[in-house]
TrEMBL record:
Domain FAD/NAD(P)-binding: 19-297
Coiled coil: none
Chain segments carrying region Disordered: 326-349
Keywords: Flavoprotein, Oxidoreductase
Keyword Oxidoreductase: yes
Superkingdom of source: Archaea
Annotated InterPro entries: FAD/NAD-bd_sf, FAD/NAD-binding_dom, Ferredoxin-NADP_redctase_2
Single GO term (MF): oxidoreductase activity
Source species: Halosolutus amylolyticus
Name of the protein this chain belongs to: NAD(P)/FAD-dependent oxidoreductase
Species lineage: Archaea, Methanobacteriati, Methanobacteriota, Stenosarchaea group, Halobacteria
Amino acid composition bias (Polar residues), ranges on this chain: 338-349
UniProt KW DNA-binding keyword: no
């Protein structure tokens, strides 16, 4: 793609902003990347369309130091406030496209445009959802066994789906309860012969009929599901296993390598196959967990800092440019430096 010739051109009456780091996506992975990049001295912006899997959390689980009473939205709002206090820009905009020029990326958004030296994609994926009727998300319908299995110890649990992943999750839930149903919802099984043998030898009840109704308690939690044959089964909750739809359009447009199922391939520091382009969180292969996403964001932020920081100069640079002039340090972006001084002063008050 051809890069714009004037990176300060006007777009939708708004001048294009320039950043060292642009993070696309405002979940735990993207916000953590931005946090590290900003605190390590780089002008950083987060472009967030809102929503996402973390925002859907009714309660926050498995995040040390964060009470379960904190919702996903509260968790994210606190993170955004932290980012702003360190000097990062948080822009509630949807990135519609990214062009790659020589040494820079050019972002087009619903509100304008921006130029960045490094781009981090943290756009995640969307869980495949079964057709209604369904329990409320977070009040009987869940997508993460590792996050939520604990709340179903000794409870009646369902797993929706007809593939290997659904069958496997149903058997995994036997580690927490002895009452597990696998709901096919009228579909034919699509799991392997090996999985079929495993299911035969595990006490999982396979229910083939379609779900026709949902019964909730006064607190909003699921109490039971109704089925096409007239039966009613009591459940505290369960898991839907219908795959994932990776939000990888931007990565694909830039030519980043992806797995067969659509996740963006990265190394251990979030670097993609495209120079200067990183990806973190649920957009990449691996466990889809808030702490894991935060760890990936931290590692990517540090890797980006190492690629951007001014000092120490290399021997080749010193031979070409001479010794570092004291007037050229510190090597921190002026705006971030100013905000850091203000932040420190506020903490000292």
């Amino acid at each position: 793609m051809t890069a714009p010739t004037d990176p300060t051109r006007q777009t939708d009456s708004t001048a294009t902003s320039r950043y060292e780091v642009a993070v696309v996506g405002g979940g735990p992975a993207g916000l953590t990347t931005a946090l590290y990049a900003t605190r390590l001295g780089h002008e950083t912006a987060v472009f967030d369309r809102g929503g996402g899997r973390a925002a859907m959390m009714q309660e926050t689980h498995n995040v040390i130091g964060t009470p379960e009473s904190v919702s996903g939205n509260e968790f994210l709002e606190t993170a955004i406030d932290q980012l702003r206090s360190y000097g990062a820009d948080y822009r509630r905009e949807f990135v519609t496209g990214i062009d790659r020029g020589e040494g820079s990326f050019y972002l087009k958004t619903t509100e304008g445009s921006a130029v960045a030296d490094r781009v981090v994609l943290a756009t995640g994926f969307s869980d495949g959802r079964p057709e209604p009727p369904l329990p409320r998300t977070g009040r009987g319908l869940h997508y993460c066994l590792h996050c939520d299995a604990y709340m179903f110890v000794d409870e009646s649990v369902y797993v929706m789906g007809n593939g290997d992943s659904a069958a496997t999750v149903a058997m995994l839930m036997l580690n927490f309860t002895d009452d597990v149903d696998l709901l096919l919802r009228g579909d034919d099984p699509d799991w392997s012969d090996e999985t079929d043998v495993l299911l035969e030898h595990h006490p999982v009840d396979i229910v083939r009929e379609e779900v026709t109704g949902v019964r909730n308690g006064e607190d909003g939690w699921l109490e039971a599901l109704e089925f096409a044959d007239g039966s009613v089964r009591d459940y505290r909750g369960g898991f839907a296993m219908y795959g994932s739809d990776y939000n990888n359009d931007l990565a694909a447009s830039l030519g980043a390598d992806r797995t067969e199922d659509g996740a963006v391939v990265v190394d251990d520091h979030g670097r993609t196959s495209v120079d200067g382009l990183y990806a973190v969180g649920d957009l990449t292969p691996g466990h889809n967990q808030v702490p894991v996403a935060m760890g990936q964001g931290a590692k990517a932020g540090i890797a980006i800092h190492k690629s951007l920081r001014e000092f120490p100069k290399s021997i080749a640079e010193l031979e070409a440019e001479g010794a570092v002039d004291p007037q050229d340090v510190p090597g921190i972006a002026p705006a971030v430096r100013q905000q850091a001084n203000a932040h420190s002063s506020a903490e000292g008050d």
